[in-house]
Design brief:
3-stranded antiparallel sheet, 286 residues, 3 domains, single chain
Length: 286
């Protein structure tokens, strides 16, 4: 055990005074602590060289060949064609993808441009579509940070949070040492951003040669991947119930409100699944 006090006031602020039990007071440089065996612990560094194991960065990059990454790449094939139909220039497309970095927000942006919506309307739509990233980021950061992580390290990777990288990293995190998790996530997510931007840019230039049925099939890959990802990461059975009920209620919601059928089906399925789980838990308690 040890106790420490940061120097302040009239005392020279360059030093930290530490007193191990049954020992004399000693003067140490700030950031250094005396351990139980009276040995000085290593000083902390202001850079990230000793905070993370960067050998995991290329390991994250290598997962560009994984199934989730390949499915997302195929979804951006469809997005590249959609962007071309909306008359978005190639230069703007290359800027949009990594700067926003969330396919639903990309789709909201392109849809807003296509219908001639105002700048404020489009900005609010993209912002609301990205609100879901906040709880995702809050769930991911505790898994990838280390005791010595600095704020700017975490802020630097926040813009890379999207459902594919988020789900993949949370699944892999238990198998990765804590010092390697942030580099792994950064390697995987940044490689995905570069790859999807490249694919969308190529399709933007070549989409005229693609058969319409192929483009339609690739559009469908995006919601299909989101559904399978949610199913695989569900932790309680009620989440599976909600997903199934959402699919069942979808056609009925479309007949009632075609412009809001996904919202209504998801909300209805979630409420029913939540109520069913509460009922099951109450009966179990009885």
């Amino acid at each position: 055990m040890f106790k420490y006090a940061d120097a302040g006031g009239a005392i020279d602020g360059r030093y930290l005074f530490a007193k191990p039990i049954a020992s004399e007071w000693v003067s140490l440089p700030a950031g250094t602590f005396m351990t139980c065996d009276n040995q000085a612990a290593p000083q902390s560094s202001n850079d990230s060289s000793g905070v993370y194991d960067w050998s995991w960065f290329p390991k994250g990059m290598a997962n560009i060949a994984s199934l989730p990454a390949l499915v997302l790449l195929s979804a951006f094939v469809g997005f590249g064609g959609l962007a071309r139909e909306a008359d978005i220039p190639l230069s703007q497309l290359v800027f949009i993808i990594p700067s926003i970095w969330a396919l639903p927000s990309h789709l909201v942006l392109v849809a807003g441009i296509s219908v001639g919506a105002s700048l404020l309307t489009v900005a609010l739509g993209v912002a609301f579509a990205a609100i879901r990233m906040l709880p995702m980021t809050m769930a991911l950061i505790p898994e990838i940070r280390t005791p010595r992580s600095r704020l700017w390290h975490l802020l630097a990777v926040c813009n890379l949070v999207a459902i594919t990288a988020w789900v993949h990293t949370l699944q892999k995190a238990p198998e990765i040492p804590r010092e390697g998790r942030l580099p792994y996530f950064a390697g995987f997510a940044s490689t995905m951003a570069v790859a999807t931007t490249t694919v969308a840019a190529l399709v933007h230039q070549l989409s005229a040669a693609f058969p319409p049925i192929l483009m339609a099939a690739l559009y469908f890959m995006t919601p299909l991947y989101f559904a399978t990802s949610i199913w695989n990461t569900a932790r309680i059975r009620a989440e599976h119930w909600a997903l199934v009920l959402g699919f069942v209620l979808g056609p009925f919601a479309w007949m009632v409100a075609p412009q809001a059928n996904i919202l209504l089906a998801g909300l209805g399925g979630g409420i029913i699944a939540y109520g069913a789980r509460r009922l099951v838990m109450a009966r179990g308690a009885d």
